[in-house]
Design brief:
Helices cover 13% and strands 60% of the residues. It has 2 helices and 10 strands; from the N terminus they run αβββββββββαβ. Strand 2 and strand 3 form a beta hairpin. The chain is mainly beta.
Length: 236
Amino acid sequence: MKRILLSLIALAITVASANAQNNYYEEKNVSFMGLFGMNISNMHYKNQPGMELNPKAGFNLGVRAEYVLPSCHGVFVNAGLEYTMKGGRDKIEVGIDDMLGIGCTYIARPCYISIPVHVGYRYDVLDVLGVYADFGPYFAIGTNGKFRTKFDDFSDDVTESIFKKEDGMRSYKRFDCGLGFRVGAEYAKHYNFILGFDWGLTDMYTQDMKHYLHQEGATDAACKNFCASLTFGYRF
């Protein structure tokens, strides 16, 4: 009786293990995904009293290559090439010449080519539905972007470049890097809905900008990017 019971337990474990492995994503090892989505981004400031921007909407688009590691039952690595818009905005008051308390909207809009490199895990809940999560660093190069100040009482806006020198001073570094985390669901092995978060680790201020802020009384000022995204992807 004991042998029969042990045999049944061993058989149940074997069947359960076989069924569990059927739920792992073990189809083609290499795939590609096109991406398009919306960003909600912000810029976090340090040691700058009163300098707090609000989140700003933007967009992202790109492609991603994914490789499923053989015999790892759901573990994969991916790398992407993405164009993404970040930044923030705020309603503030400024002084111009002899006029004080002029209301304006301040918008920072840096744009980047970003390369995320992530490691993740996928599990197929159903034959047509899989869920996954991945995590890793990203590396980004600034391509274009503007500081824009829209005044309430004036028709003309003030626009300055973020990455190029304006009046002999460069405001933001072009290079950014940080950590990213994504969770997603895939339907019918093609259609993906992805929620992502990127935390910038690079202080974006150049030495020119730090020197200027130090003269204005902001000692050890720093600025870092943050971005949340909701993205639709199609796997080829």
